[in-house]
Amino acid sequence: MVKNKQKPTSAFAILDAGTSKLAAIIVEPNKSGTLTIIGDAIQESAGVKGGEINDLEAFSTAVGNTVQMAENKAGVTIKDIHLVCNAGQANIQIIRSHIDLSDAKISKRDLRRIIAKQNDIHISDTRTIIQHEPFQYILDEHSQVRNPLGMFAQKLSSDSLLLTIRSSSIANMRQVIQQNHLIPQHIHHGASMSGLACLSEEERDLGSLVLDIGGGTSGIALFMDGKVVYTDTLALGGIQLTRDIAKVLSISIEEAERLKIFEGTVFTANTHVMRTAPGIPSKGDNFILSGGLSDLDMLTLSNSEQIERQLLNTIIKTRLEEILEKLMARLTDANMHHAVGNRVILAGGTAKLTGIAEFVSSFWKKNAQLGAPNSFSGLGEREDTDPLAAALGMAIFIQSYPDEPIQRQIRKLPFGKFGKFSNWLIKNI
To answer: Which fold has domain 91-163+409-428?
Structure first.
């Protein structure tokens, strides 16, 4: 990437490396400790399939162009960049460490010993820790202890949440960043970061499931007690919807994509005919304010052939059902399905389909709604901030861990608050 001669700055960049799009923001820290977005760019991605790099050169070029566009808009040249991606099969583990106590009364020395054990956790060389967060203390059999200092027990234990990504995927991502003369910093999971951007603090605390359906992947992130306690990613997304449309209707990928964007809808039985239904479906890119969408409408293809909207709706719905079934199966296999509450927040490009929130609500029997990034300084002129959600969430994450080592974060004592789900997680995972 060719660099312009611009003023030096403490600003840094965040790149959301998706399969279909790249989104970059440049963030400048303020003296007050807040962050301001001074540049942003969204470009078509290349060299990525199912979240993983499959053409290093093509991906490197696309990254360089996107970051440079954001730099030009910000009027600065950045050196450091943080990455959000859906590569590497992100996985969360809960690891328990414990020490025996020589004195029944817990001292600061005991706390330092247990922290040292947490920091000495070893994992497979094939995985890299991208977030290491304390979860709870346990005194003998008493769990959910916030600060055990001065309390009495025979054994002190602590639980940590480890979020890991496949090491080879991280190495490839870092290689691309370095090829563009940038210094790679934090790397994190897409759906988790979208949740930080779109969920309120209360929603993260009470429990919410983020469903991020992008171009090439569909990710989930389960938040409880303010933390991400489960993540997973499926190599299926909006691109598969486009291919299904092209195959069934015998049209080109380009026309199928256009048809999906401008005419694609997902109607449930309750929103079968929108001309007469009292409710209005969740707003998508093709939303008609008059409510004049009906699955009985006729759509005209480029070859002058006409199809019922119901056919397009069925093609899209069939693939979405597969995605939702597989993600819920992953939650069930991880024994997390009972932990998922009633709140589902939708993010990602495919969440733009009209009626998808109602569809997910009906399919999962939960309250699903479209997510939108919380307000962020510097984006006042941009109407649609949804494509920047994961990058904005990464900015929030970095603000929470400003001085921690790259790829391994652990907070100082005490651990923080714990909610009603904490003990359930320990017993069931």
So the answer is: Dna Ligase; domain 1 (3.30.1490)
- Residue ranges per domain, the chain? 91-163+409-428, 201-372
Res 287: pLDDT = 54
Q: Compute the distance between CA of residue 397 and CA of residue 392 in angstroms, rounded to an integer.
A: 9
- 327-343: per-residue pLDDT in tens? 999 999 988 888 888 99
Phi, psi of 267 (to 5 degrees): -100, 135
Q: What is the rounded CA–CA span in Å between residue 428 and residue 278?
A: 42
Distance of alpha carbon 202 from alpha carbon 212, whole angstroms? 20
Instruction: Give, rounded to a whole angstrom, the gap between the first and last alpha carbons of the chain.
Output: 45
Q: Which CATH class is domain 201-372?
A: alpha beta
Q: CB of 346 within 8 A of CB of 360? A: yes
- Number of Cα atoms under 13 Å in the Cβ half of residue 383: 0
**Contact by Cβ (8 Å): 89, 55:** no
Alpha-carbon distance 172 to 292, whole Å?
Answer: 47
Tokens, residue 343: 């709140």
Per-chain mean pLDDT for the chain: 84
Binned at pLDDT 50, 70 and 90, residue 291 comes out as very low
What's the CA gap between 52 and 92, in Å, rounded?
19
Within 8 A by CB and 6+ apart from 269, the residues are: 362
